[in-house]
What does this fold into?
Amino acid sequence: MKLKMTTLAAKAAGDIELSDDVFGLTPRKDLLHRMVRYQLAKRQAGTHKVKGRSEISLTGKRFGNQKGGGTARHGSRRSNIFVGGGRAFGPVVRSHAHGLQKKVRKLALRHALSAKAGAKELIIVDDVKAKSLKTKDLLSSFDKLGIKNALIVGGREMDENLARASRNIPNVDVLPSAGINVYDILRRHTLVLSKSAVEDLEARFK
It folds into this structure.
């Protein structure tokens, strides 16, 4: 697959050949769905907690008369049927993460990249280095490229000027090539890859 490469200033920078094994697959929605669920479940805090019956500080002594009281023979105020009692089957602190095979995770990333390439929502730039720290200058470059909602992926290390200048821009995420993931790719409209990011990705999947 051959795509035209550009610069951050929206000037032509030649062509680049993309691997069909990484960018030319037919996207499978089931793989993408499984991977997004895996990512979101793994990052869920799971810190919800309520007190159970054994954690309530109330008497366990039988109260009321055994007979003649007109009520049931309750033996503890900690029961979940009383106000202030422990909750039955309430949420506890736990991890929501579930397993997903490594080969499925790698395949899902390739399908996410292919989905962006197939939808014409992939832009390849020769380098993602910003000349200044000013957000205004970076926004001007984005306007020329038609970028409003995007994930920008650089090389192994992100350019500091670009990372700082993009902090105040809504709907724009910046990641190094090692941090690229399915969820961040799909949640943004446009995927912007640097030439070094493409090389890192293709080398990873060889």
Notes: Residues 144 and 165 are 17 Å apart (CA to CA). The two ends are 16 Å apart (CA to CA). The mean pLDDT is 91.
